[in-house]
Specification:
This protein is of the alpha/beta class and 220 residues long. It is 44% helix and 15% strand. The chain starts with a strand and ends in a 5-residue tail after the last helix.
Length: 220
């Protein structure tokens, strides 16, 4: 969905001049056409989320816990791939998706996002996600943890090769941002990082994630 500057200002509840300033000075993604800026809604919301700008998107939908999404997506071991694109494609081929979901399209969305900037989280972990989650039309959100057969260079900010990928698939923008935020929060936990580094199975991972979520419930 394309937004005008006034649309974006209303969505983020800021003056239009602030939107222009963010485009000019803070890298807010926008396209200039016929003298006017146009913004992709998904890209706008993800940019705002990354910059810590408050979002007001309460649509009444029930948001899943990260533990439930990870329980739905599960863990994949020994995923092949010597290069980033090979690994991503192998992960997508193994995701728990319905037969009618176009896996080739999902891979292209993930790869397009990587070409815009690595989703390497740091510490050997990556969080591949598509820019347009609302287009996937899956019945429920899930997060799948993929362990590569061998660490893969991912262009992460810290330069470390990736040994674990959390891939999320969601039907709405709000769920996409919600799960991305929770992943970013729980992956700061040293105990969870250690479990991932040891290629832990699903059960201990879920136990730790539930503990972290119950200790610090996320705000909508």
């Amino acid at each position: 969905m394309q937004l005008s500057v006034p649309d974006a200002a209303r969505l983020l509840q800021v003056p239009e001049d602030t939107i222009h300033k963010w485009i000019r000075d803070r890298g807010l993604p926008a396209s200039l056409f016929d003298g006017r800026y146009h913004l992709n809604k998904v890209w706008l919301l993800e940019w705002a989320h990354d910059k810590g700008i408050p979002l007001s998107m309460d649509t009444g939908e029930q948001l899943p816990s990260l533990a439930s999404a990870l329980g739905q997506g599960g863990v994949l071991f020994d995923v092949p791939g010597a290069a980033k694109h090979e690994l991503l494609r192998a992960c997508v081929e193994r995701l728990p998706l319905a037969p009618e979901v176009d896996r080739g399209y999902l891979f292209e969305m993930l790869w397009m996002r990587e070409n815009q900037g690595s989703t390497g989280f740091g510490g050997g972990i990556a969080l591949p996600h598509a820019r347009g989650p609302i287009l996937l039309h899956v019945p429920a959100s899930f997060v799948t943890l993929c362990y590569p057969r061998a660490p893969v260079e991912f262009g992460a900010p810290d330069g470390k090769p990736v040994f674990a990928l959390f891939i999320q698939v969601t039907p709405t923008i709000r769920m996409h941002l919600h799960l991305l935020s929770r992943l970013g929060r729980v992956l700061q936990d040293a105990a969870l990082q250690a479990l991932v580094r040891e290629h832990a199975a699903l059960a201990p991972l879920l136990e730790r994630v539930r503990s972290l979520e119950s200790a610090a419930p996320a705000k909508p």
